[in-house]
Design goal:
Layout (H helix, E strand, L loop, with lengths): L11 E3 L5 E5 L4 E4 L2 H15 L8 E9 L2 E10 L5 E7 L8 H14 L3 E5 L4 E7 L4 E4 L6 H5 L3
Parallel strand pairs: 6-7
Antiparallel strand pairs: 1-2, 2-3, 4-5, 5-6, 7-8, 8-9
């Protein structure tokens, strides 16, 4: 399926039941190849290869607990001290990015308090900067380079 991201080569295989799987280089294992996973794999490669995000500071499917409820953040990106810098929420290309999507990532961010939130369905991508001093946020015009995010105060 066509995405609004560069094309990359991936290791795609089949599991014992014949279902398609894709190698997740961050989790270091094959995972089910769903439309959302296709977006995740492209977007993480885009961040690493096109935007200079350090692979060693990224993790997919990070567990967190909020008000006793176990949740999973799609991708967590840390700064060089290991603190959450950005979190990313993915949707399948057929799923529109809506206010509900931002509400979901905002709930995760209540626990993580990352400086940046990103959302992508592979077609449309958003990045916003959280300003905790003024309790405000603003959208960036594009997905920035890691160096720009990491140097933001």
């Amino acid at each position: 399926m066509e995405l609004n991201l560069p094309r990359y080569d991936f290791n795609i295989s089949k599991d014992e039941c014949g279902r398609a799987t894709i190698w997740d280089r961050l989790r270091r294992k094959y995972v089910a190849l769903t439309p959302e996973e296709w977006v995740r794999q492209h977007f993480t490669r885009f961040l690493i290869e096109e935007r200079g995000f350090p692979e060693g500071l990224m993790a997919n499917e990070v567990s967190l607990t909020q008000n006793g409820i176990h949740r999973r953040c799609d991708t967590l990106i840390a700064d060089k001290t290991g603190e959450p810098l950005a979190i990313v929420e993915y949707k399948a290309p057929s799923v529109a990015v809506t206010q509900r999507t931002f509400d979901q990532i905002a709930r995760y961010n209540m626990v993580l308090r990352a400086k940046f939130l990103m959302v992508s369905n592979g077609i449309t991508h958003y990045c916003c900067h959280m300003d905790y001093k003024t309790n405000n946020y603003h959208f960036l015009p594009d997905i920035p380079f890691y160096q720009l995010l990491a140097n933001d105060e």
